[in-house]
Amino acid sequence: MKKFSFFFNFVALTVSVALGAGLFVLSTRAWGDDRVELVSYDKEGALVRPEDYREWIFVGTPLTPNDMNDGKAPFPEFHHVYIHPKAYKKYSETGKFPDGTILVKELVSVGSKKAASGNGYFQGEFIGLEATVKDSKKFPKEPGNWAYFSFTTKDHKTLTPTAKAFPAASCNACHQGAAAEDWVFTQYYPVLRAAKLSAGQ
Ligand code: HEC
User: What pTM value is reported for the model?
Assistant: First the structure.
């Protein structure tokens, strides 16, 4: 009898631990898209340029070289895309961009087309910085709650300290129509696709 009750207790304990773990996983999934506070705005509501984005998670490098776009690619030329690490962490847990997510794309010129390794596109100088922020409180009327910003200047040599959100037609509409996931072009970001897979999505 004693042996039996020991066995019974053992089974009951194992089942409740398993259930508890299951509930924990479910609850982190459910709360996983909780808001993250990652950016700040000035008094006029313009986004303050983030300083430390080169320490964020690097997700991919689309390239639209000018010489394949009649000399005037809308966003020349290499695009270094980064996501804030806190947003990345939530994304890799839930497979969803949490409210508050920011991604930036830093533009880099093509410096040379020849290297010791062969012909190609090699990076030159930093020439601009764009950003997108998902925020249901701040941008309740933007499609998907994503707003778009540019810190790029005409001479491509400096960046503005702040940027106002563009009207939806300038940026948001193209992202809405062509991006693979939640207004973000994950089809070009292998790091985010891998993170989504690891989240089991
Ligand atoms: C004609 C379509 C189009 C328009 C208009 C457009 N984008 Fe994009 N955007 C893209 C594509 C395609 C990518 C991914 C590939 C790349 O960078 O070339 C992208 C990527 C981005 C990214 C990286 C994160 C993401 O969402 O994938 C940011 C930031 C961004 N764009 C900002 C802007 C801003 C700011 C504007 C408006 C000034 C804008 N975009 C207008 C097509 C567009």
Answer: 0.86
